[in-house]
Amino acid sequence: MQSERAQTAMSDDEAGEGPLAELQERHRKEKKELREKIQNMKKAAKCGNKAKQKETTAEIERLEKEQTDRHKKEIEQMTVSVQQQQGSSEPAAADNSTATSNAELETYFYKELQVSNKNKKRQEKKNAMAKRLEDAAKMDKVTSKTSSRTLEIEQIVQVLKQRGLQMHSVRSDGDCLYNSIAFALTNDGETISTSKVRQRAADYIRQNKDDFLPFLEDESENPLDESQFNDYCSKVEKECAVGGVWGGEPELRAIANSFHRKIEVIQPTSQVVPYGEEFNEKQPLQIVFLRHFCALGEHYNATEPYREEEQQEEGEE
């Protein structure tokens, strides 16, 4: 019975929509980013001694376990939420029954939705992206007080305050990474537009293809071929409103190297992920990475010096 309810609840997500589809998409992106990070860690460890390599291996195992445990917990939480939305009033069954239901949902979640998500992405056009952004903005207003979002903002506000910073919100329009970098550079005296930041990132990736190609994958997680690589670079160059792609770890590496600036990505857990560590002549560009800030999922925000008299509007973008 629980299995039937779980599959019924998944019906809205078969077309690649709904909270389960969004969670699955976020998990895939996080796994890809972690793989890229691990590759960089392994490259760096090769230059060190055996002790450094052993330390790196242990850190990789920790990161992988941390991500696996968190993903499992989020799936379980989503299972409960889905069942509650179905209006189930039946008492919880034995632990074995619950575990079976969760396992069934997880199997369906990652295997059945993979095909539908891939088909949906192929069909996604410019007008679909515009609609998605519009719906996300509406959803953000409705869910601005949800616990995960509120907790995350409270955490990052405190982390930034300790560093003498406060958050400066940029639009959650798919260009948030590039908007944040443009704001940081402009604040540092180098006036630049979001489109120019995208162009610089795309140019650097094209010019250093061998450094990036091993870490780039298509929607089916297969390595990009020559044609796909060129198409990817074109999408990095375009803003999301006209068919561009969101930015992540590869693009951050490209931006850091193109501008010869160290970038620090600050997270609510106090973790700081650096890019371009060799560029130390100037103060690093500091931006924020959030997982629950908006309905589209992950979001980058800019930072600026902390001012006691200005309280950040936590729910605004």
From TrEMBL:
Pfam families named among the record's database cross-references: OTU
InterPro entries (UniProt xref): OTU_dom, OTU_OTUD6, Papain-like_cys_pep_sf, Peptidase_C85-like
Keywords: Hydrolase
Domain OTU: 165-306
Biased composition (Basic and acidic residues): 23-39, 52-76
Region listing for Disordered, in residue ranges: 1-99
Keyword Hydrolase annotated: yes
GO biological process: protein deubiquitination
Molecular function as annotated in GO: cysteine-type deubiquitinase activity
Stretches with biased composition (Polar residues): 1-10, 78-89
Top-level lineage group: Eukaryota
Protein name: OTU domain-containing protein
